[in-house]
Amino acid sequence: MNRMNLEQYKGVFIYAQQVDNKIDAIALELLGKANDLAADLGTDVTAVLIGSDVKGLVDELAEYGADKVIVVDDPELKEYRTEPYTHALASVINEYKPDILLVGATAIGRDLGPRVSARVATGLTADCTVLEIGEFKARGDKEPRQGQLLMTRPAFGGNTIATIACPNHRPQMATVRPGVMQKKEPVAGAKAEVIEYNPGFTPNDKYVEILDIVKSVTETVDIQAAKILVSGGRGVGSAENFALLDDLAEALGGTVSCSRAVVDNGWKPKDLQVGQTGKTVRPNVYFAIGISGAIQHVAGMEESDIIIAINKDPDAPIFDVADYGIVGDALKIVPKLTEAIKAQ
Ligand code: FAD
């Protein structure tokens, strides 16, 4: 077996996802984490920006912590398509040899990350919630290796936490769920070294051809940006009863979200689901109303600053993570709460 020369792989890279020539929030979150990792390793942070006419986005990446930006700009890359984007990112890896590459666990990143890792013959840890630099003793090692990326993710339906390393291949690749890592405070006017790179895109019959793009007409609410979330579970009882939560959210200037049971019942769209297979949120205040507190739900909201639970079962596990708890019927308590807030 050919052993990789690991020494030649340097630096922490992130895939700077953009859609419609706007940087996605996940890219800025990855830059925040990449800066911490790079500081521990004594190296720098490179953002890989792929698209068409995207050079105008470089400064934003610099302000959020990119020391260098590799720009792959080509008309072939106007919309995300698996094949040309895989070719672009895999070529960047082969050319610039990053030690670490972070990709967002978005719909795009979940498609792109595994294909790129297979193309460059390395491993990928999906859906990480914690990333840190540490030591790792691989099979056959006498001493632990320093400076390894330790990638932690929930496993077995959230029932255990697994920490994974990639000792023998590079780059060490991870996808990271949106909303988990913290952005850095932007530094206005910060500049990055810009490297333009184009591996060449020959028109290829095998590329998917996009004939038309039809944007979703539903009004999507970004629950990950909300400072106050009023989240409802199966205990709310029906789609109609969610009107009570809408009223509370309106009185507080917040947004409604929900558990998976609510989505499964067809009461709310999947966009609003919090949890392991939904979104990870960190609002200032999270109301959990008629939500039992299953581990898969808690995984998506436990980092909230203040958690307020309303549940008729005093033994509901949600009270284990709540800062404040109200035991009782949510359908009676929520309207009273809304009234009291409006009266203030
Ligand atoms: P329930 O567990 O049915 O709880 C309802 C709660 O409401 C109960 O505690 C009850 O006491 C209370 N209640 C009932 N009536 C009232 C009332 N009138 N007033 C006050 N309280 C009342 N779940 C998620 O939420 N997000 C995920 O991303 C997610 N991912 C999953 C991934 C996997 C692989 C698996 C296996 C499961 C996942 N789940 C997820 C499902 C999760 O295990 C739970 O089934 C789900 O969270 C339960 O939703 P719930 O709390 O709304 O409903």
Automatic annotation (TrEMBL):
InterPro entries: DHS-like_NAD/FAD-binding_dom (IPR029035), ETF_a/b_N (IPR014730), ETF_a/FixB (IPR001308), ETF_alpha_N (IPR033947), ETF_asu_C (IPR014731), Rossmann-like_a/b/a_fold (IPR014729). GO terms for biological process: fatty acid beta-oxidation using acyl-CoA dehydrogenase. It holds the Pfam family ETF. SMART domains: ETF. Keywords: FAD, Flavoprotein. Binds 1 FAD per dimer. Transmembrane segments: none annotated. GO terms for molecular function: electron transfer activity; flavin adenine dinucleotide binding. Residues 12-210 form the Electron transfer flavoprotein alpha/beta-subunit N-terminal domain. FAD binds at residues 234, 259-260, 273-277, 290-297, 311. Coiled coil: none annotated. PANTHER family: ELECTRON TRANSFER FLAVOPROTEIN ALPHA, ELECTRON TRANSFER FLAVOPROTEIN SUBUNIT ALPHA, MITOCHONDRIAL. This is Electron transfer flavoprotein large subunit. It comes from Anaerobutyricum hallii.
